[in-house]
């Protein structure tokens, strides 16, 4: 990711879209992570 800043930004935006700091703890739940399709990209 360090050598691909555009991909790093896309990933951060994707994670942020699933993470709600008002209702989530310090990290998204396991169930939320399973919904993050960008993380499944080979």
Instruction: Report the average pLDDT across residues.
Output: 80
DSSP helix fraction: 40-55%
* Structural class category: mainly alpha
What's the tally of helices? 2
Taken in chain order, the helices and strands follow as HH
Whole-angstrom Rg: 11 Å
Overall number of structural domains: 1
Main pleated sheet: none
Beta content comes to under 5%
Distance between the termini: 14 Å
Which runs of at least 5 residues are low in confidence (pLDDT < 50)?
A: none
Outline, from the CA principal axes?
Answer: globular
Count the beta strands.
0
Structural summary, described in words:
The protein has 42 residues and is mainly alpha-helical. It has one domain. 48% of the residues lie in helices and 0% in strands.
Provide tags for this entry.
42 residues; mainly alpha; 2 helices; globular
Helix and strand topology:
Layout lengths: L4 H14 L11 H6 L7
Task: Compose a concise summary of this entry.
The protein has helices spanning 5-18, 30-35. The protein has 42 residues and is an all-alpha fold.
